[in-house]
Amino acid sequence: ATMPPLLAAIANAGRHGVLVKSAVVMERLGATTRVAFDKTGTLTRGAPHLAEIHSVDGTFTEAEVLALAAAVEVDSEHPVAAAIVGAARADRTTLPAAEGFAAEPGRGVSARIGAHRIAVGSPVALMSRIDGVPTTAEQDACVVVDALQERGFTAVVVTRDGGPIGVLGITDQLRPEASVAVELTSRVTGTAPILLTGDNRRAANLLAAQVGISDTQAELLPHEKVDAVTARQAAGERVAVVGDGINDAPALAAADVGIAMGGAGSDLTLQTADAVVVRDDLTAVPAVIALSRRARRVVI
Ligand code: ADP
Ligand code: MG
Q: Which ipTM did the prediction report?
């Protein structure tokens, strides 16, 4: 007996390095009219590194800013956290003890160190705290953030009891196959893929241009990634979302097909996803969509 086409397609997808969780998902993949890619860990390798440390308040040296940030990030699973902790470890920095760790997906993390609350996170979170006349440290932080973002960096602000003490510049390498994957995706779906990211607008646009994406939505919180997906669906599109981080889990759940990048993916993301890319290759995404379309043709 021959295998039903969708099951054969699932087996084939496995050979391409994609675990497809059911025949229903395998079928749905071929109906995709739009693919939305996440940035960090999806179009990029997801192994960012710390490139620059800036002290913006005369009180702390760059090494102290790094030590405080790393002490908080030790408990975070975000790739940005790995970059910060990795840099501190490479410098053999002794990390102070942190207590009461809290994470806000898409924004950042915080913890108590001694008598102070140290937060590490997105500049958007910092800027929104500034009301009235900014302090000198806040002004300095804004200038540094601006300059870093202009150069395509992810800028992360370190605050102590709400006031900025430093800014970190983080970069991630583009996946070598990213632009080919984008091109193949647009060919197989017949539409231009889009970019949905929590990172800053300028870094997002710069990267989008490099991979050939012209439709980018940046500085999105996890629930705003969901809104971006449901808006497309309301317009009649069938959306596949490709993401890696814990912050992508809600968008993967809202998508017609949620695809997780397996390598760096968080447990929650892997659980939520309908399919998992286990080979470290983004071209597997258009490949499985093409497989599904062929299998559907056989079924019909
Ligand atoms: P992406 O959509 O590119 O995967 P995220 O939604 O995960 O990005 O994060 C958005 C932004 O929130 C990051 O660019 C960073 O500024 C901030 N952020 C999130 N988590 C952390 C963290 N653990 N430490 C520092 N900054 C963080
Ligand atoms: Mg991500």
A: 0.95
